[in-house]
Specification:
This protein is mostly helical. It has one domain (about 45-115, about 130-270). It is built from twelve helices and no strands. α7 (about 115-145) crosses α8 (about 155-180) and α8 runs antiparallel to α11. It is globular. It starts with 12 loop residues before the first helix and ends in a 6-residue tail after the last helix.
């Protein structure tokens, strides 16, 4: 059954089923993955920046003795933060592709399908998660090359990849919300560039929270990147610790994603108005 763009089918979960909802989401994720397989150069170009941060910035700041990192080296302290940075920078510009799809008429076709808008958003978030997993594998390889002591148990790696997937989903969904509001590529690029660095520096990615001024430390506690870094640091690094606890980190990350998912599903229609 087809409907007008402004009247997307709102069948209950009971009528379509939970299975149908996830099938729709996986179908969207598969489409996005096919795009990535056709042009995988994006992944490798995105990997250049974290390599520079670890190999150059990390080597220099590891000589600074005034940064308290506990029982681990500064490079080890920094590695999870650079992985989180890579996730952020890759996902925050995800919305530009949605604007392109709007201009090509793809969004209109999706909106007149019987699929849930939330499944459309979830599918795109899952595809962003896959990109984040590839970035994580690159950071793992680089960290091993630089002789950073990692926790390489199967359980720890799966938990790291899960955290990366959720983090990528959060920032890609947030990017989609921004794209729905600004609607043009030029405005989106400006806002995306405006948001990335404050999100990165107002987190614990490259320095502990206790080094921050009190006002910035308060701001960082409302930054989901802080909890992503905290979880990665506790899971990924040998001797690393989670300040807030993994339960709190994952609980906050999942909660933020669900809120963004609901908002993005409601805003998706705005993109074509």
């Amino acid at each position: 059954m087809f409907v007008k763009p402004g009247e997307l089918q709102t069948a209950s979960v009971d009528s379509v089923g939970i299975k149908g909802f996830f099938v729709q989401s996986l179908a969207i994720a598969e489409v996005e993955l096919r795009k990535l397989l056709r042009d995988p150069t994006e992944l490798f170009t995105r990997a250049v920046q974290p390599v520079l941060w670890l190999a150059v910035f990390g080597q220099i700041f590891s000589r600074v003795r005034g940064i308290p990192t506990g029982n681990i080296s500064y490079l080890a302290f920094m590695a999870p933060g650079i992985l989180a940075q890579s996730v952020l920078f890759s996902a925050i510009f995800f919305g530009i592709a949605v604007i392109w799809e709007r201009d090509l008429g793809i969004v209109h076709k999706l909106l007149v399908s019987p699929a849930y808008r939330s499944s459309l958003v979830l599918g795109k978030a899952l595809s962003a998660g896959l990109r984040g997993v590839v970035q994580a594998l690159i950071i793992y390889a680089l960290a091993l090359f630089m002789k950073i002591e990692l926790v390489l148990s199967f359980k720890a790696i799966i938990e790291v990849l899960s955290a990366v997937t959720i983090g990528s989903a959060i920032f890609s969904t947030f990017s989609l919300i921004v794209a729905c509001l600004v609607k043009t590529r030029e405005r989106f690029m400006g806002i995306g560039q405006l948001l990335t660095m404050p999100l990165f520096f107002a987190s614990n990615a490259i320095y502990p929270l206790e080094l921050m001024p009190k006002w910035l430390e308060t701001v960082s506690r409302f930054n989901p990147l802080t909890y992503l870094v905290d979880a990665l640091r506790g899971l990924m690094i040998s001797g690393g610790q989670s300040v807030y606890g993994l339960g709190v980190d994952f609980g906050i990350l999942i909660s933020v994603f669900l809120v963004f998912l609901i908002i993005a599903a409601n805003f998706y229609q705005i993109l074509v108005e």
